[in-house]
Amino acid sequence: MSIQYKIVFAGPVGAGKTSAIQALSDIEVISTEARASDDVRKLKPTTTVAMDYGVMKLGNGDQVRLYGAPGQKRFDFMWDILTENALGLVVLVSAAAPDPVADLRTYLDAFRDLIDRTAVIVGVTHGDQGNAAARHLLIEEMQRQGIPACVMEADARSRTDVAMLVKTLLFSIDPFAGNAGPMAGSAAVRPLA
Ligand SMILES: Nc1nc2c(ncn2[C@@H]2O[C@H](COP(=O)(O)OP(=O)(O)OP(=O)(O)O)[C@@H](O)[C@H]2O)c(=O)[nH]1
Ligand SMILES: [Mg+2]
After folding, report:
1. Which domain holds residue 171?
2. Assigned domain for 164 exists
3. CATH number, position 46
4. 175 CA distance to ligand 2 centroid (A)?
5. Phi-psi region of 14 (alpha: psi -120 to 50; beta: other; left: phi over 0)
6. Is residue 91 in some structural domain?
């Protein structure tokens, strides 16, 4: 029987949640992009207003359902809906943002229930355009908050980079994810503490 893992992508506007799901998905992505309001339009022309949905297929038939949350706080009612039954969280933070650490704090606070129940990984995007020290600062913030998690650089447009993020998160949830052995998916079928 194949296992379905549900993973949520969260983070600020422009961090790359929609791009990451587009890069990763093996099905056509369902997106809810709309013309951005003035403040967001300075960053990019459209923004996610409800969710992105894609599916990453693992070699053994297991699937990772990928849900992208809207970055804007005014759509935060979607955050609780999307995190229901999720097994893990990817927080994307842009190294090119004015204060990546403050951005990380905002989304750790907002998704703290899910983080405490499951697992989180931090992807640092826009490394080519941003503060070279961002990853180090974000690692320090995770340590300050007492959250054990990987902080990895990832270009959200790169399937290789984002697949590495998701696989690292999956293995922290279930060391047998993607395997066909007898223990495969054991954490996914058990409710996580
Ligand atoms: N240069 C560079 N561009 C990136 C990188 N990651 C993502 N991008 C670009 O940054 C933009 C990110 O936009 P989206 O993927 O829509 O961002 P989002 O997080 O979904 O934003 P909202 O839905 O508005 O919250 C896109 O234009 C990507 O091509 C990166 O590592 N480097
Ligand atoms: Mg988006």
Report:
1. 4-175
2. yes
3. 3.40.50.300
4. 29
5. left
6. yes
What does the pLDDT read at residue 193? 35
pLDDT bucket at 184, cuts 50 / 70 / 90? low
Say how many Å lie between the CA of residue 183 and the centre of ligand 2. 35
Does residue 118 lie in a domain region?
Answer: yes
Total domains present in the chain: 1
In a domain, 188, yes or no: no
Answer whether 97's CB lies under 8 Å from 12's CB: yes
List the beta bridge partners of residue 91.
Answer: 10, 122
User: In terms of residues, how long is the chain?
Assistant: 193
Q: Which of 17, 19, 160 to mutate to test the pocket of ligand 1 (most atoms within 8 A of CB)?
A: 19
Report the range of poorest mean pLDDT among 14-23, 84-93, 182-191.
Answer: 182-191
Residues 71-102 pLDDT 10s: 999 999 999 999 999 999 999 999 999 999 99
What backbone torsions phi and psi does residue 126 show, to the nearest 5 degrees? 55, 30
Ligand 1 within 6 A of 94 CB? no
| pTM tops 0.85, yes or no | yes
